[in-house]
Design goal:
The protein is of the alpha/beta class and 310 residues long. The chain has one domain (7-308): P-loop containing nucleotide triphosphate hydrolases (Rossmann fold, 3-Layer(aba) Sandwich). It has 13 helices and seven strands. The chain has helices at 18-25, 68-74, 78-85, 101-112, 119-133, 157-163, 176-183, 192-212, 222-227, 229-239, 272-279, 284-294, 297-300; strands at residues 7-12, 31-33, 145-149, 168-173, 217-221, 252-253, 256-257. A five-stranded parallel β-sheet has the order 2-3-1-4-5, sandwiched between helices. A two-stranded antiparallel ribbon has the order 6-7. It starts with 6 loop residues before the first strand and ends in a 10-residue tail after the last helix.
Length: 310
Amino acid sequence: MQADFQLLMISAMYENGGNTTHRFLDGHPQLWVYPFESQLGTRMVVDSLSSTFPVKYRWPEFLTEANEEEDYAAIIDEETKIRARTPQVSKFHRIAFDFSDTDRLAIYLEIMRFLPRSRGNNVAAFFRATFEAWKDRRKSGMEKWCVGYSPIVVVDTDKILADLPLAHVVHVVRNPWSAYADTKKRPVPLSMKNYMLGWTLNQYFALYYQKKYPARFHLLRLEDILADPKVALGALCRQLNLEGSDSLGYPSWNGMPLDEVYPWGTLRQVTGKDNRGTADELSPEEKDEIRTLAGLYLEALDYSHYLLTG
């Protein structure tokens, strides 16, 4: 096993600020930050949650009889592979990204030549090969942790922490009113009941794992990140024995500041005022229904009085 591999895996329900948090961490000199969503799932993921969440966002499963090249091909990694192989259809086509998926495969196979196949080794090799194949990545030489982001992967926290003994998971939660108001803007949005089913399931697992793994699982509210990202994410960095950095104060891509997080995420303006204003796009009836569907999670996550503030 790649016993020295340190992975910080970000999770968040859709429109809950996972991409925003990912971009705030991007410029930290001690982090290798995955370029896009690290969609590690494979089509072999089949369980009671497979009908609720896309398998591309899940922790991967691999066939026992597969070989290393088949393992690599099984990892969906949609955003990076599309940008590398067919950049003209990628939403990131205007972003400079000197990267070859073919080169990454060769590097992955070379890494795995010295390791037994296992889920943990496969994932670690996939991340390491990505950063080695990314030719125009700005490097500090001080990197210690890899950072990935996959929506809803909190549901697989047990597997992540078991497969990678040094890994940590950070789950980001956003108030459900603003989150649902943003998901309504998608071309084909989830219904309120389906969206809130996903939101509550995410928070159930987050609160459960926070108690089960207090030293390796971190729960952050997007509202606190937006209020002061250097404070909220600086505290996370200290828990990982990392230094603070001014780069935590703004979103970036490959270390270069971004005016907006889009197209990485739907949250274009990352301020607390905009976040609160988004909640008010909902009708009074929608707000009341979300309060009912969110139930006790509002109190557990300190959102009970959110609509009554500022």
